[in-house]
Amino acid sequence: MPWRPGRLTLAALAVASLLAVPVASVALYLFAGGTGDTWTHLASTVLPDYVANTLWLCLWTGAGVVSMGVTTAWLTAMHEFPGRRLFEWALILPLAMPAYVIAYTYTDLLQFVGPVQGALREVFGWKAGEYWFPEVRSVGGAAAMFALVLYPYVYMLVRPAFLERASGMIEVGRSLGYGPWASFLRLSLPLARPAVAAGTALALMETLADYGTVSYFAVQTFTTGIYRAWFSLGDRVAAAQLSAALLGFVALILLLERASRGRARFHNTTGRQRPMPGYRLRGPLAWLAAAACAMPILLGFLLPAWLLLRMALSEEGVLSLDRFAALARNSFVLASVTAVVAVAFAVLLGYAARMARSRLPGMVNRLVGLGYAVPGTVIAVGVLIPVTRLDNWIAYWMQQAFGVNPGLLLTGGVAALIYAYLVRFLAVALHTVETGLGKITPSMDEAARSLGLAQGETLHRVHVPMLRASLLTAVLLVFVDVMKELPATLVMRPFNFDTLATQTFVLASDERLAESSLPALAIVAVGLLPLIVLSRQIGAGGRHSTRSGGSGAE
Fold first, then answer.
1. What domains, with CATH codes, occur in the chain?
2. Confidence (pTM)
3. Staple 87 to which of 126, 178, 293, 442, CB 3.0 to 4.6 Å?
């Protein structure tokens, strides 16, 4: 008997198809002919710079996040030293600091007229041109900003990988006569390779998605090129083709991450659970380890937050409270509506995959989940192309039917912007909801069916109450991501409609850093909310992580 999808599966497929339209529209333009000579001009002038800068940015950022993330994860997981329990959760705090915000603060600190260079000239009597100082507005400077705020992706994935195999690795290393450093290089790091690759891939996808940092630093990448092609040159085909090329970079990173795993599998091969002996550091080594963990927190969170707070408390150039309230209201409305709709869609997709007798809904969910890997600029282009065509069709139809031309109803409106947010961030809610559903035993579904409950009633009366914590977490995560999102908002926001993120970018671009400090601080404060919850879990896990199994590799 042929398989027939139910109404729940059909609804999930309809939602997934709607969310796939933007990426598909970009892909369709990959081999489209350009309008005029725009694409030829880009290819012969700036495209090589886009490719080179993007590659160097990924290379240096990857090196930075791996070095900081793996080092701090290894120190906090495998050693005892002063402050370890504080560092094990505080090391995730830089995630609350968007890269474009930290870029503004360090530019103000390190530029020629900033306090650092000013102090150096005063102390040593130097004059302009008599000394060398690294240029913060460069590819290397942008990579440093990304590394400082994105290394927690590597840290959060690698540290559990170390903890899961801690006691086994230490025992094997000691039996082979290895010290801490040799055990790390020959045992710990090879076994944690999949986690290192996954965390690095996440950091690099965030790097490719960024617009605010590279634009402020005048680093020409694909994201800046897409924005310029659409708004400065007015060529949507060239913008779509650049977007498709950027998608190629994202796909390459995902393929490299998958290939790095190979066919290796890493499992605990013993059921023994004993306290982790660890390496107790003493003397200079202990304080060196503490300094190595404190430095990323200081540079990635504490120092930028203090600089923002100092600028916000300055008397001149501070953003008015009325203006700040309007920005906060716009951001709150967009984030709240998107979070609620995203969680509703995630419940629909996750529950359809759970109840279906086919693998199709699950495969569709995996495809929808790839939206998080697509940069916001690409999604903005992918949304504007079909939405503009739909608007033009509606206007033509109403002109023919009623003699009225309503203009563009959807393009440049809040609805289109929320649509772009859903494409970008639904994966966050979907992953959280699927994790919560996975913890509910299938016997609950069987019991509900035995009581005569339909699928909708089972979801409403059984699953939703049990998913309350997961749903609240998903709402919070999507809310924070929307509050921080800059590229899609900058491209698609309605006329004279600003958010905290766009106003921060505009003011900082005009070198009005004092005025940009208040909305930037608000973004950071909101970003701390999920990290507080996560840090408590990490802290609790750290206190119970003294129990770990052995390790093995196939």
1. 1-22+318-511 (1.10.3720.10), 32-262+284-316+518-554 (1.10.3720.10)
2. 0.79
3. 293
